[in-house]
Amino acid sequence: MKIKFCGAAREVTGSAHLITLDDGFKILLDCGLYQGGDDDGQAGDGKSMAGFNEKWLFNPEEIGCLVLSHAHIDHSGRIPKLVGDGFTGKIYSTHATRDLCAIMLLDSAKIQENDAAYHNKKKGFNEPDRSPLYTIEDVGQAMRQFASYNYEQWFHIHPDVRVMYRDAGHILGSASVTLEITENGQITRFGFSGDIGRPDRPILGDPLPMPDLDYLICESTYGDREHESAPNEVERFVEIVQHTCVEKKGKLIIPAFSVGRTQEIVYMLDKLNHAGRLPKVSVFVDSPLAVNATQVFVNHPECFDDEVHRYMLEDENPFGFNDLYYIRNSEGSIKLNSIEKPCIIISASGMMNAGRIRHHLLHNIDNRRNTFLIVGYCAPNTPGGLLRDGAKSLYIMGHNKQVLADIEVMDSFSAHGDRVEMLDFLKNQKNSCRKVWLVHGTIDRQEKWRDYLLANGFKDVAIPELGEEAKL
User: In this structure, are residues 68 and 95 in contact, taking their beta carbons and an 8 Å threshold?
Assistant: First the structure.
């Protein structure tokens, strides 16, 4: 058996890891889209990522099955291309992940098609036409290949391999993956953490430790730090709303991923409104995908924690209140740019490199009355990453804009566990796990996370390069 690291190696996006059994059967863990700042982005170790999404480090026709950890596009976003390029096997996921993929992959395909059409309309005389990475038709075929399962249920993907999903507490339906592989009469437990969530977060259950493993692929997004503590989170959020919307009479604009982060913020606003602590301002969720994703959340209460179930006894809809408006069409989104009154706008994408948030950035970043609240990880070359690093100006959609709005960052909203939370998730692996490979993180954070794991009792921790293979 061997493992090949085909994505998210010394980089945060593009998750893909290939296991090849001794009989040649190939199991792909995740199939994510690289989401860098531009087409010539660099990985965390300085290597160019240009063309990553168009190329494979394996033959899609040879893949026996795909085991998906969760629906975020950096983990699922190349599935339709995989299918379009010849993959015919099953795609395994949890039930909620399948339902989220149905809307997220369609949204991604629409973006691919629109970007290609825009390029072809604006391209120079001698430039070749650009084709979308995949189409809506490819998504339809991919969804027909899904097979979904509950948490805590063993199922076979091969006569000698069975799999179990366990709640990772990251987004709705997210899971760690445990593979129990029998070869030559010997059982090996191989684990993939997926993205590790955080304990005591709103809406979702806490991440559950994986069974004792022999080998583990582990994420490392925040392996170098500890998040702001949750008890201060609500108070700080209320202060930012008060300062922006009441004192400055401006707009609070929150770039947020449509799935997970948006619902968490809406739930917090719902509770603040229910408690009479939210100023009388309109709240707009400006993302068709977020609107659809919120409905998927409503359809999967089995993923909620006890707090949400209790709250729903008082408020049957934890994602809606009188001053909250969900905006689907582009006309409604455009109108938000001309609103002068204070308001809160939640819009995708979270890194501000795509979607409607770019227009809100263009129209609002140079106004001192406004505040942009960054509530999650942003890749270094994206607008969000530049603002996190203190950029004084941004080049946005052909315009150079001064950064005059306040920029606030609240990493406590992160859906990724910090190093203490991830160590707690992994602590039962110290004695059993022979080797850990770190993925899904920049090299500087991975090195610190590796050192932290070694200092806390882990024996062998490696940081693979893109395309590296390891034989077990």
Answer: no
Query: What is the residue range of 279's domain?
Result: 230-413
| 442 close to 10: Cβ distance less than 8 angstroms | yes
Closest by alpha carbon to 104, among 266, 375, 346, 287? Answer: 287
CB 93 within 8 A of CB 138: no
Q: Of the candidates 253, 324, 293, which has an alpha carbon nearest to the alpha carbon of residue 71?
A: 293
Is the same domain home to 257 and 371? yes
CATH number, residue 368: 3.40.50.10890
Q: Residue 292's CB: how many other CB atoms inside 10 A? A: 20
Q: Is 165 in the same domain as 307?
A: no
Roughly how many angstroms between the first and final C-alpha of the chain, as a whole number?
6
How is residue 323 written in tokens? 């001053």
Residues 165 and 277 in one domain: no
Residue 291: C-alpha distances to residues 271, 297, 334, 355 (Å): 19, 10, 17, 14
- Do 11 and 65 lie in one domain? The reply is yes
State pLDDT tens for residues 314-351.
888 899 999 999 999 999 999 998 899 999 999 998 99
- Tokens found for residue 178: 């445990």
Q: For the whole model, what pTM was predicted? A: 0.88
Burial 306-345 (b: 16+ CB within 10 A, else e): ebbeebeeeeeebbbbeebebbeeeeebeebeeeeebbbb
Residue 215 sits in the same domain as residue 236: no
CB-based burial, 135-160: b 16+ in 10 Å, e otherwise: beebbeebbebbebbebeeeeebbeb
Q: Which residue has the tokens 């709303």?
A: 241
Q: What are 263-315's pLDDT values in tens digits?
A: 999 999 999 999 999 999 999 999 999 999 999 999 999 899 999 999 999 88
CATH code, domain carrying 184: 3.60.15.10
Q: Which amino acid is at 128?
A: P
Q: How many residues does the chain have?
A: 472
- In angstroms and rounded to an integer, the radius of gyration of the C-alpha atoms of the chain is 22
3-class SS of residue 164: strand
Do 31 and 67 meet the contact criterion of CB atoms below 8 Å apart? Answer: no
Query: For 151-162, what is each residue's pLDDT tens digit?
Result: 999 999 999 999
State the sign of the Cα–Cα–Cα–Cα dihedral 41, 43, 49, 55.
Answer: negative
